Amino acid sequence: MQRKTLMVFGYGVLAGAVIDHLSNFGQALDIHVAGRDLESLRRRTNLSRYAAANFGNFPKIFEHKNDIYNVAATADLIHTLQPDVIFNATSPLPWWTLKELPPGLASRVDEASGGAWTPTDAVLPYKLAQALKLSGHVAVFVNGSYADVVNPALAAIGLAPNVGVGNVANAVPGLRYAIAECTGRPAGELDVRFVAHHFISYSMPTVGHTSGAPFHLHAAHDGQDIASEFDAGRVFELVATKFRRVKGLAGQAVTASSATHVLDAILNGGGTAGHAPGPMGLLGGYPVYLDEDGATLNLPEGLSAEEAEAINRKGQKWDGIEEIDANGNVHFTQKCQDIMKSVFGFDCAVMPIEECEQWAAELLTKYQDVNSRAA
Questions:
Q1: pTM for the whole thing?
Q2: Exposed, middle or buried, 186 (CB in 10 Å: 0-12/13-18/19+)?
């Protein structure tokens, strides 16, 4: 197999776990990891090396000091390394840090839903997309930061990542086990395809329903539709009860496995089925085929791409997003605006994607101020 090059930006919880996984796959792969603190970065990659060595694997991992905010320097690094695939696993405000807020504030902020943090989720993918374009190099860009919303916003200005990771993909294993439970069919033999926005993948496994958010759930066995053999409501209940999993920071293991699946399929160039948010710059999450060019839709028979996207366009409102318009402006729901203004004094009704850096800086400052005063 031809040797491939993967470039990972970030070395935190998600990136580290993905590097751990890929280090044990025995691929003809060079893994280049970039981050701002070279010493901390090297210690994390050495952890991957040590763990892999215990399985008799000795991956080719290389470290690079880099700050994504420096677009020109990042572009130079990409141009020099010529990676086949770029994976963004960075965020100035990882979602689990929100749990540091006092319980009362944390629950209030949770009501604003994931879209409230679009500025901080978007800024580094935006910078990285700019750097990739400036480099003149063509690579498959996999975005690990809120791809349901960030990818379509960037698509509007011609900077779309090819595909995202996690989110909808995190919900599918539970759905597979629950459908198997309902139908008596082996989980490993089921063809499950799920169209849903981030809100459902985040909320449903906890509350056991979608809170009214729209979705499309399909399952087949041996090529035969088995929708008549199960009730979606009962399936969601089972996901939140019998098949409830550990969440929080430890639950990132599922996101890491999703990301590894996406990256491995793209690097190996095989037609592999899976689920992912933001494929081809579309909003929300979908079943996809993954190959060396990225992702294409793998919708069940009878569901058109337009219908699937309409489901997610409606569903984004549950995530605090009213609309992503044709110019890449992210419009927040009134509920989302009211909560963010009352808790943090952050007042943003519409965020042009090109202005995400300034909005992210303001949101980070206000979040840190509230968090420090509440401590």
A1: 0.97
A2: exposed
